[in-house]
Amino acid sequence: MTAPSQLEPPQSTEIQALFNRIAPAYDPLNDWLSLGQHRVWKQMAVRWSDAQPGDCCLDLCCGSGDLARRLARQVGKTGSVYGLDFSAAQLAIAAQRTHESVQPLNVTWVEGDALNLPFETAQFDAATMGYGLRNVLDIPRSLSELHRVLKAGATAAILDFHQPKSVWIREFQQWYLANLVVPMAESLNLKQEYAYIMPSLERFPTGADQVALARQAGFSQAIHYPIAGGIMGVLVVQKP
């Protein structure tokens, strides 16, 4: 597959195929390339979601399930988590790792579309989403669907790459992706798949634009927190 260009956003089937292919290497690469910091960022997202023991929660675009498992540990034995993704290969890894977990975790894995969620209206007490909003084909619709399935007063935390305001940090981010991320992926025969990150980031709305889109989707409160020097960000939204 040719890496998508900046002017031609990929189709849903292309993105789905991409995540199926990278599934076996996804977590090891995240760990190495972030120097383990992705764990800290995910825990921040769980905390900002305000998930409480006993809550029923959703992790959108769950991938291999790392964030969903953290959410499950937060809600405890009396709570429940649904992890949704459109990649069957990622979900298979998520299910296997949950099965191997020392601590029993109440997670249900669902293969589905973030633009057409297979859940009831006002079903969830809290939600998270990691590295998913940047990859959906219709961000406003995805946010509207998230708004629909949350209960009144519920909070969601959406973690993803961010475009730093600082010119030198933005240049470092570009250098890091081009000179460390892509070559590392190339060593695993995944160069084209990871070359996709930079154009997807350039198309991704800024933090301020994400806040505006969230408010248009019906969220009464929305704030974007830049983290890791602005290389990453968490959009925190609340349903009225």
**What structural category arises from helix and sheet content?**
alpha/beta
Shape: globular
- Number of helices, where a helix is a run of at least 4 consecutive DSSP H or I residues: 9
CATH class: Alpha Beta
What fraction strand?
A: 15-25%
Estimated helix fraction: 40-55%
Largest sheet: 7 strands, mixed
Order of helices and strands: HHEHEHEEHEHHHHEE
Tell me the CATH topology.
Rossmann fold
Q: Measured on Cα atoms, how large is the radius of gyration?
A: 17 Å
End-to-end distance? 43 Å
The CATH architecture classification is 3-Layer(aba) Sandwich
Average pLDDT confidence is: 89
Pfam families: Ubie_methyltran
Pathway: Cofactor biosynthesis; phylloquinone biosynthesis
Enzyme class: transferase
Catalytic activity: demethylphylloquinol + S-adenosyl-L-methionine = phylloquinol + S-adenosyl-L-homocysteine + H(+)
In short:
The chain is an alpha/beta fold and 240 residues long. The chain contains nine helices and seven strands. The protein has a seven-stranded mixed sheet, with helices on both faces.
Ordered list of secondary-structure elements with their pairings:
Layout lengths: L11 H22 L3 H13 L6 E5 L5 H10 L4 E6 L2 H13 L6 E5 L12 E7 L8 H11 E12 L5 H20 L4 H5 L1 H7 L3 H10 L4 E7 L4 E7 L2
Parallel strand pairs: 1-2, 1-4, 2-3, 4-5
Antiparallel strand pairs: 5-7, 6-7
Helix pairs in contact: 1-4
